[in-house]
Amino acid sequence: MADDRTTRMKLVLVEDNETLREALREGLDDSGTVSVVAEAESGERAVERCLDEPPDAVLMDVQLAGEMNGIQAAVAIRREYPRLPVVFYSIQDEDAYYRDFRRSGILSHYAYVRKSNFLLPEMIIPLLQDAISGRSFIDPEIVSRVEEVRHKDEQSPIALLEPIEQDVARMLSQGLTNEQIAGRLGFRDKRTVSRINGAIYTAWGLVETATDEKVARTRAAIIYQREQLIIWDSEGVLKVANRKGEWVPLTDES
Asked: How many CA atoms lie within 13 A of 40 on its CB side?
């Protein structure tokens, strides 16, 4: 009798927790639908496995051992094999992962779910089959967090600065003097820092509201540390933009 494994979905399983990886492999192999043809504990190893012999699909944790996370690994794999089906799962709730996913440009042949909701083979296999068929699925919770990160990035004051301005703003927020900043960045003239400070204040709308250099410097430091544009009204009330673009008083929840 022919081995029915030859007709199963060929899967690369990427998980850095050995106990969980073994449990997933056994459950998927026992399903009669999936054959785990390779395993990896890191994003780098996952790329190697998939490029050596591309599978039908990849099941991958987002947080992995090594330097490369699951999203980054998928991007590297799909660079060589466009739209290779991938199902991501994760219990981590960190902005960096959602930011990587948003920037990855992954549009189809994938699913992204919460590990706590989708861990049994009977729940994973339909996601893999849908991904192979070209469909996509994201947990509503993840959609919400991706949008939250997108909004945060669009409102980021750092994005309004050029690279050297970002360096100066970071050091300014750490309390360094112009002389210290000039020394660290190798400027011959400390007045260069003053000119860059002026560009930062202009980009962040501080030149009209700040009464002097010390006030502008303090407010710029606050903006950098909060990673959020802030305006100060005539009464000194701090305001930030809400999702509708309206300036509202800054609160602990803002």
From this structure: 28
Same fold? 4-154, 157-249 = no
Looking at the domain that runs over 157-249, which CATH code has it been given? 1.10.10.10
Calpha distance 162→4 (Å, rounded) = 58
Question: CA 1 from chain center: how many Å?
Answer: 48
Please tell me whether residue 232 adopts helix, strand or coil conformation. Answer: strand
CA distances from 75 to 58, 78, 102 (A): 12, 5, 12
Q: Are 240 and 229 in contact (CB under 8 A)?
A: yes
What backbone torsions phi and psi does residue 253 show, to the nearest 5 degrees?
A: -90, -10
Dihedral Cα 143, 146, 151, 157, nearest 10 deg: 180
Domain regions of the chain by residue span: 4-154, 157-249
- Fold category of 4-154 in CATH: Rossmann fold (3.40.50)
pLDDT of the chain, 254 residues: tens digit per residue: 345 656 899 999 999 999 999 999 999 999 999 999 999 999 999 999 999 999 999 999 999 999 999 999 999 999 999 999 999 999 988 999 998 998 898 999 999 999 887 788 999 999 999 999 999 999 999 999 998 888 777 778 988 899 999 999 999 999 999 999 999 999 988 799 999 999 999 999 887 655 678 889 999 999 999 888 888 888 888 888 776 667 888 875 55
